Amino acid sequence: MTDIFHLKSVSELHHLFDLGKPSHPLITIVKDWPETDFDFANIKMKSDLYVLGMKGQIKGAFKYGRNSYDYEKGTIVFMAPNQVAQFEPAENDNDIDNDGWSIFFHPDLIRKSELGKTIKNYAFFNYELDEALHLSDKEKCMLTDLVHRIETELNQNIDKHSQEIVLTNLESILKYCHRYYDRQFHTRINLNKDIIVRFEVFLEDYLASEKLVSTGLPSVTNCGKALNMSGSYLSDLLKLETGISAKDHIHSYIIEKAKTKLLEKGVSVSEVAYSLGFKYPQHFSKLFKSKTGVNPTGYIKLLIPYS
Fold it and tell me: Quick one: CATH architecture of 3-180?
């Protein structure tokens, strides 16, 4: 049985890897990972911290969610608090990662800041590891320069300006990563189109099956799993390619199916709602009105004379 190690703070991280006392209690940057006797082989790590890690030279793989990802130099991965990951060092390899960097920060660092309000918009913290960001040399240099600025600020005397400067650079890193992910989506146009087609086929098959009644509406997470990716990655990809999120795609399919069912003779609005996987008819009516501008009964009255 694999044990789970719960990493609660920056101080615990420094103690675990014998990194000395952290310069700041809520954020740290690690570049030169020391050798450690800690055995990662059968350990899964759950962290209360946000993590951004850019690959250096270390060999091995991360397991995260359903997938194992042997990531290359120049890629960056993201983890949000309460996610679980496992590192598997390569066999007979003692190389230490001295070419990359990792930022660990506690949610308390940003809780009262603007970044605390907007960090939920950076969906890549919920991507799977095989959806990591692949950086060009220029992009890698840009991010590394921002990391150096944070590191410099942490290594000098902390004053009333330190927090703002650290957060400004941290937010810049996230904004650039958002931009670089958009670039990555655009360079994979053919792959993206294939994913969109498979997504639409999945929805068609799901809505035509008994799962709609027995299991309920398909969630974005379910759709992502069916396509072997995270729901967040799927939604961002669809948003970029079509202008519509995965959730809106699902709702559009449901509404189109509902329109057809509502015009069938002798079928009530409640029956249509239940047949489409809604537990409560009022939830169906609310969604229908939000998408069409009229409630289901009003839609029937508008269309019956022409049907």
Answer: Sandwich (2.60)
Nearest 5°: the CA angle 198, 200, 205 is 95
pLDDT of residue 305: 52
**What average pLDDT does this structure show over 19-36?**
86
Mean pLDDT in residue range 154-173: 92
Q: What is the DSSP string of 193-210?
A: HHHHHHHHHHHHHHHHST
Rounded to whole angstroms, the Cα distance separating 101 from 33 reads: 9
* Cβ proximity of 127 and 63 under 8 Å: no
- Helix ranges (H only) for the chain are 10-16, 114-118, 137-154, 162-186, 189-208, 211-214, 220-226, 231-242, 246-262, 269-275, 281-292, 296-303
Distance CA 68, CA 124 (A): 17
Closest CA to 170 of 52, 47, 79: 52
Residue ranges of domains in the chain: 3-180, 189-306
Is the whole-model pTM more than 0.85?
A: no
On whether the CB atoms of residues 269 and 283 are closer than 8 A, the answer is no
Three-state secondary-structure class, residue 19: coil
Query: Hey, what CATH topology would domain 189-306 get?
Result: Arc Repressor Mutant, subunit A (1.10.10)
